[in-house]
Each structure stands twice: as structure tokens, then as C-alpha cells.
Amino acid sequence: MSFTVVIPARYASTRLPGKPLRDIVGKPMVQHVCERASESRASRVVVATDDPRIQSACEAFGAEVVMTSPNHVSGTDRLEEVVRKLGLDPDHRVVNVQGDEPLIPPRLIDQVAENLDLYPEAAIATLCERIHDIEQVFNPNVVKVVFDLEGMAHYFSRAPIPWARDHWSETGQDTLSAPSAGAALNDGAGYFRHIGIYGYRASVLSRFVSWPPAPTEQAESLEQLRALYNGARIHVEVAAGTPPAGVDTEEDLQRVREWMVKSIKRGAHGA
């Protein structure tokens, strides 16, 4: 299985400026992401950036860098430019790993790439995990996904889908308002959180950037709905492990730093 990992890395983050270059135990964050990606079975790992500061830092630790336009509206547009510049074959697999995921398990990268092999009818592969927390079901920042028996996505939404009518009626939560105090959630309710890692066939990226934004995409502010709207099939599988949260804020950055320090100490003591 041959696939390429592309890591988009932008300097201009609103909540954490210069995020890819922020230090974590002596290395810029983007280097940690590259190292995790290199531990996967990818044949190539590429950083995509529009900032020369990130380019310089990445080349200093030996990463391959592709400079992209600063005018891209979405991450998928940036990814398509990289694929085009690298001249990848239409059926080549490309895994998009965000530049703020320094703890991403390499096996999840392999998982989405493998699923493109296992499901040739899928243009895109992604992951999910079961939701156990009722607050996540009603949290619009947690994207839910519904898929069929073969794992093909039907829809992604910020709303609580599917609406488990009998379950919510029994627990007293029978409206789309915030969850009732003490309301419970069991696995039978069938809620899954989308995990934002994607594997693509290179050919779908060239088509994707030619499609106008879909009405559902604009309503939900979820780019993957453009693919579904235009008939591209997306395979969804429960992740082989729970991915740690990415880095969006200073608090997230400190949490990852502390985790890394503890991990190094455990390794030094053979624990």
C-alpha cells in the first residue's frame, strides 16, 4: 500500500498565532506531527504551507515542503494544489493530517489509507468514535455522522443525528433543546462523533475544487457535505484508537507539553 501524508500548516491561526512553530519539548509542533506521520506506513510525508517561516523550520529538520497559495478558501483546496504540484496519479491515496495534531496515533493514518484499498467504491475515507456523553450529542461543535451497514456515510451534522425518538422520550429529553439534567445516554442510541482525518483518492480532489459549495455545506459549515452532495462516497469506520485532542489554544498547548514531558520521563525510567 502506497500513500502520501500531507500536513497543512498555517501560521495565521486566530486563537494561537504561529501554531505550527510553537515549541513542544524542544521541537516545533509541526515536527512532532511529521514524526507521527513518518511512523505510519506512508511512503511520503509532505508539509503544505504558505509561510516561509514554516518552510524554513521544516526544512531545518529535514521535512519535504510544498509551498501553496495563501488565497485558498479551504484546506481541501490547499491539498489539491499539493497533489497537482507533486503530479500524483489519480488513484494515489493521500491522507490529510492536520498540523495541530502532534499526538495523532500513526495507526489511524494507516487505517484511513487501508480503507481506501478495502472499499474501492469510496472516494474518501474517514473515522469516527462512539459518543457516550449526552452533552456531546447536543454540542454543535461536535460533528455527528450517520452511516450504513458497509460504513458509507449518509450525512454529517452538528445536530443530534439520528434523533433517537424513543430513547429521548424515555429519558425526558424530547426536544432539540439542551439536555435535561440527569438525562442518560446509552450505546443503543447510536451516536458517533466524526474524527477529522481524511484519506482521499487524488482524483476526487481535482473534482472537489471544481464543485461549488453545496447548500448543506453552507448550512452546516461542513466541507465534507460538498462531496456527498455531488455523489462522492465517503467511508466511515470506528477509529482503531481514541485520538488525543488537537491544539487550538494556549491551554491545549500546555496540556500537550505536560503529556510529552511525562511520556519522556516514563520512557527514561522504563515505565
Describe the model:
The structure is a single chain. The protein starts with a strand and ends with a helix. Helix 2 links the parallel strand 4 and strand 5. It is globular and about 55 Å long. The strands form 3 sheets. A 7-stranded mixed beta sheet has the order 5-4-1-6-10-7-11, sandwiched between helices. Strands 2-3 form a two-stranded antiparallel ribbon. The protein is built from 10 helices and 11 strands. Helices cover 34% and strands 20% of the residues. The protein folds into 2 domains: 100 residues, Spore Coat Polysaccharide Biosynthesis Protein SpsA, Chain A (Alpha-Beta Complex), CATH 3.90.550; 139 residues, Spore Coat Polysaccharide Biosynthesis Protein SpsA, Chain A. The chain has 271 residues and is α/β, with parallel strands linked by helices.
How would you summarize what this structure contains?
The protein has 271 residues and is an alpha/beta fold. The protein contains 10 helices and 11 strands.
Give me the Rg, rounded.
19 Å
CATH topology of the largest domain: Spore Coat Polysaccharide Biosynthesis Protein SpsA, Chain A
Number of strands: 11
First and last CA, distance: 34 Å
Helix segment count? 10
Poorly predicted sequence stretches spanning 5 or more consecutive residues: none
Assembly status: single chain
* Highest-level CATH class of the largest domain: Alpha Beta
Biggest sheet layout: 7 strands, mixed
> Could you give the order of strands across the largest sheet?
5-4-1-6-10-7-11
| Outline type | globular
Average of the residue pLDDT scores: 90
Order of helices and strands: EEEHEHEHEHEHEEHEHHHEH
Q: CATH homologous superfamily of the largest domain, by name?
A: Spore Coat Polysaccharide Biosynthesis Protein SpsA, Chain A
What structural class should be given to the helix and strand makeup? alpha/beta
Query: Per DSSP, what share of the residues sits in E-state strands of 2 or more residues?
Result: 15-25%
Percent helix: 25-40%
Question: What is the domain tally?
Answer: 2
Q: What would CATH call the architecture of the largest domain? A: Alpha-Beta Complex
